[in-house]
Design goal:
single chain; 357 residues; alpha/beta; seven-stranded mixed beta sheet; five-stranded mixed beta sheet; 11 helices; transferase
Length: 357
């Protein structure tokens, strides 16, 4: 009898070298106060009526596409609905990058899925710094991204919360016309609406904007995102996307989330969360256990602890927050903005660790 080959011998050579994205929910941690995934603390009550689950769904449900186009201030032909913004990242790399030949540019530290997606498709990463993006000249940035097919800008940036001015993004996009696609990830844009690049879409056909319903819209469990761009960019992507990416259930819930009343409610909740963030920032600024605070935009605050052993007290209190290794140091922590009771627990934790310093 011939022995069966081991599974790993059947895999392409580059698969073993890949590192999976470590999402907040993939880490096996326990607690009862979840402030590690930048989720909204608001719970959605959803009522849906389904009588046609025996039929395949509309691949791009027109009511949802039209509603999101109206919300974003673009035309419906400029919108593709995706399974979260993550699928948008994957579609862009698969469509526009040639494996083992092309590279993408990104500004570190930033959202980890850009690199994971590139690695998965054997596309190189041109890793640059957030400092270059924020403080460098447009000429410096263009020189650094020269040769990259896609240039990812997370705005507001996760996990630092930093904002790249719209005018600077416009200048970079203009300079890269015919050379690269600029991809602006606006997952957190509802918390900083004045910094959206959506209005630039009328001027540039090499600009793509990624959006999501996971954050401000309080629908992380729905896994719904949108890709906004010129028809010339989206047409090739429509050839690559899965045949039925949007389920009937998801489409119905997303459509309800985008009606005028729901959008008004979302903006009201964003106002509350932004105010709560200011309160959290004041507590952090007063704590002797905190070494540094990155007080940018988004529904989170990233900070550096004087001693990362403080996290053991958080675990004992049931607090689940997101530890980070940033700038070569492992004592960074990102705290999502939760409800009043959640943040009261964070205050209790800060009081405990401040007393230890």
């Amino acid at each position: 009898m011939t022995d069966k080959p081991a599974q790993d011998t059947l895999l392409p050579g580059n698969i073993e070298a890949l590192t999976a994205y470590s999402s907040a929910k993939s880490e096996k941690v326990s607690g009862n106060i979840w402030l590690n995934a930048n989720e909204s603390p608001y719970v959605k009550d959803v009522n849906i009526i389904l009588s046609d689950l025996n039929r395949y769904p509309d691949p791009q449900p027109a009511p949802v596409i039209d509603a999101y186009a109206d919300y974003a201030g673009v035309s419906s032909e400029q919108v593709i609905m995706t399974r979260g913004a993550d699928e948008g990242i994957d579609l862009l790399v698969r469509t526009y990058c040639e494996p083992a030949t092309d590279n993408i540019a990104l500004f570190l530290p930033t959202y980890g899925m850009y690199k994971v997606t590139a690695d998965t498709h054997n596309v190189a990463v041109n890793g640059l710094s957030q400092d270059l993006l924020l403080s460098g000249t447009v000429e410096d940035i263009i020189k650094a991204v020269s040769g990259s097919k896609l240039v990812f800008i997370c705005n507001p940036n996760n996990p630092t919360g930093s904002i790249t001015p719209v005018e600077k993004i416009a200048q970079v996009t203009k300079a890269l016309a015919g050379k690269a696609i600029v991809v602006v990830d606006e997952a957190y844009i509802e918390f900083s609406e004045s910094n959206s690049c959506a209005l630039l879409l009328k001027d540039f056909d090499n600009l793509v904007i990624l959006r999501t319903l996971s954050k401000a819209f309080a629908l992380a469990g729905l896994r719904t995102g949108f890709m906004l761009g010129d028809k010339s960019i989206l047409t090739p992507i429509r050839k690559v996307i899965a045949p039925y990416p949007v389920s009937t259930v998801v489409a119905q819930i997303a459509e309800k989330a985008l009606n005028s009343d729901a959008i008004t409610q979302m903006r009201r909740q964003v106002t509350i969360l932004n105010k709560a963030k200011l309160t959290l920032l004041s507590w952090l600024e007063q704590s002797p256990a905190v070494n540094n605070i990155l007080s940018g935009d988004g529904n989170f605050v990233t900070l550096q602890l004087k001693d990362k052993s403080c996290l053991s007290f958080a675990a004992q209190m049931g607090l689940v927050m997101r530890p980070f290794n940033l700038y070569g140091q492992d004592n960074w922590l990102r705290i999502s903005i939760g409800n009043e009771q959640d943040l009261k627990s964070v205050k209790d934790w800060l009081d405990v660790i401040s007393a230890q310093v």
